[in-house]
Amino acid sequence: MENVKKWIKSEPVLASFIRVLKSLLEIRFDILNFIKFLKEYNIYKNKLLKSKNYNQLLSIKYLYPCFLDKTAQVKLDPVYFYQDAWCAKKIFENKPAHHYDIASSIKLVSIISQFCPVTFVDIRDIDLKLENLNVVIADARNLPFQENSIDSLSSICVLEHIGLGRYGDKIDPYGTEKAVTEIKRVLKPGGNLFISLPVDKENIVYFNAHRAFTIDYILSLFKELKLMEEKYIYGKQIYDSYDPEKGFGTGLFYFKKL
Fold first, then answer.
1. Tens of pLDDT, residues 143-195
2. Could you tell me the CA-to-CA distances from 240 to 81, 211, 231, 233 in Å, in that order?
3. CB of 203 closer than 8 Å to CB of 177
4. pTM of the full predicted structure?
5. Rg of the Cα trace of the chain?
């Protein structure tokens, strides 16, 4: 398969054709968008020729359609938009000497690492390097850290996935609970914990994507810790309090170990 990919990359016309075909399939062959794309290509080509800008190479060999990006608004996942901003702000405010994160968005972690050293834990390796970012390959159900050793810890949009096999982890109906137990074990007294979890009226398994939990169950899992702050994301808004009438949402929780 890798040889096929290398061969395709070595043939610019073929690679260009495949990108065009992929884009057309993604938009279910929206012929109007394709016609507009060709029209804009010709407009650009004519303007480039008139300008005599010889610093640019324009050719059908390098077509790269991005039909889905032409939207009235920037495409965003509101959950990641709010929760990552919330988590980053909390960590920046607390200014830990060293922060630990369990499998959150690597984009979030990479940004945090530019302000303080970060140890990032995931069952999958990261094929990129950054100064101040240390990657540890481990399972959240068996963290390779000593008891009461971590002062600042986050796990954003992660705990609900553990044990469902989505990311190559072993199937385990108690995956979330085991990870929570490990988090409480390694967090030191006075340490800060920032997590997010799906919330709903019942504890539900959406196999093999994620789970959702009731507020009472989430608080019971972390009953040894003090709840410092909570936020809730419903749709495209973030709220200060839980609203059972809104149904499925995402809860953001800041705990401190006593």
1. 999 999 999 999 999 999 999 999 999 999 999 999 999 999 999 999 999 99
2. 16, 22, 5, 9
3. no
4. 0.84
5. 23
**Contacts by residues 36-43 (CB-CB < 8 Å, ≥ 24 positions apart):** 37/65, 37/67
Name the token pair of 215. Answer: 């507020």
Q: How many CB atoms lie within 10 A of CB 134?
A: 13
pLDDT at 27: 55
The whole domain housing 39 covers 2-69
Domain boundary among 69, 87, 108: 69
The answer to whether 196 touches 229, Cβ cutoff 8 Å, is no
Q: Are residues 241 and 152 in the same domain?
A: yes
150 to 79, 81, 98, 153: CA distances (angstroms): 27, 26, 8, 7
User: Do 257 and 188 contact (CB within 8 A), yes or no?
Assistant: yes
User: From CA 211, how far away is CA 248, in angstroms rounded?
Assistant: 11
Longest CA span, the chain: 71
> What 3-state class would DSSP assign to 195?
strand
Average pLDDT over the chain reads 91
Spatial distance between the Cα atoms of 200 and 215, rounded to a whole number of angstroms: 8
- Single-letter residue type at 60: I
Q: Which residue has the tokens 């109906």?
A: 173
Same domain, 110 and 206: yes
